[in-house]
Amino acid sequence: MLLSKIKDENGEDPFEETLGNFKKEKGAKTDLTADDLAELIKRYKAIYVKYGHEFPQDPKKQVMASAEAVFRSWNNERAIFTRKLEGIPDNLGTAVNIQEMVFGNRTPRSATGVYFTRDKVSCIKHDILDGTVLFQTQGEDVVAGIRNALPLEALRDHEDKAFHAIYDELKATGEKLEHKCRDMQDTEFTIEEVNGVPTLYFLQIRDGKRSAKAESVIAYNLVKEGILTKEEAICKVNPERFEGLLFPQIEPKTARPPRRSPRVPLLPPVLPVVKSASRRTKHLCDLG
Fold this sequence. Notes:
This protein has 10 helices and 5 strands; from the N terminus they run ααααββαβααββααα. The chain is an alpha+beta fold. Strands 3-2-1-4-5 form a 5-stranded antiparallel beta sheet.
C-alpha cells in the first residue's frame, strides 16, 4: 500500500477495512481466489475515486509514485521520532531500491522467511540456524498472523533434498555477510522454484536488533572471531543501553512467569516476523 496515503475522518485506513470486510464476506480466513482478488481491486480503485484520486495504470508511474511515497515517509511523525531517539541526522535522507519481484507462493517448492545470523536474544552463534520459513506463501501472510511459521530446520530436514542445499546456502551466506558487514545480520529471503529448482534470493539485510546484554556479547564475540578490533567493538556498544546492565536484575530462572489470560493463548517469548513481498536480488553486496 505504498501508494496509499488515504485516511478517513477517523484516521483509519479504508483499504485495510475494505480487505477485512471482503474476507468476511467471502468467508476466507487466508487465501483469496483470483476472481476474488479481481473484485477486490475494483473496490480499491473505487476508494481512490471516492477521495478524488485516480489510480495510475502505467506501471512506470506506479513505481515512481511508490518511490516518492518512501521519500515522503522520511518526514512523517514516526520517522522523525525514531531519528531523534537514535541520534540520526534529519538531513541524512533515505534511499529507494527498485527490484524485480520473486514469488514465495509460486509453487509448493517455493517459500519465504527470515534468518538471523546469530541468536537474536543472546547473539550467540549456534549450529542450528535462527529464523523461520513458510512454504508457498508471501511474507504478508506471517505479518497478518494467519499462518504459523516453521523453524529453519524445516529446510534442513525436508524430504526434498533441494531444500537441504538451501539451508546450507543460508548458513554460508550468513557467514559472508557478517564478515562483510561486520555485524550480526537480520535477513529476509524468498525461495522461488526456477526451472524446476528451488532458488534462494536474499531480499534485504540489516544489522540485527538485539538486547542491551546481547549487544555486549556480540561485540566481544566479533573480536574473538577476528571480525572487529577491540576499539571497533567498543564503538558497537551503546553507552546508554549498557548503563542499564549495571542495575540489579532478576535472574531469568527466578523471574515470575507472566499471568496467562484464560482467553488468550500464551505466545512464545520471541516470534520472528517475515515482512513485505519478495523482490529479486541474488546478492545485496559484494561478498567476495
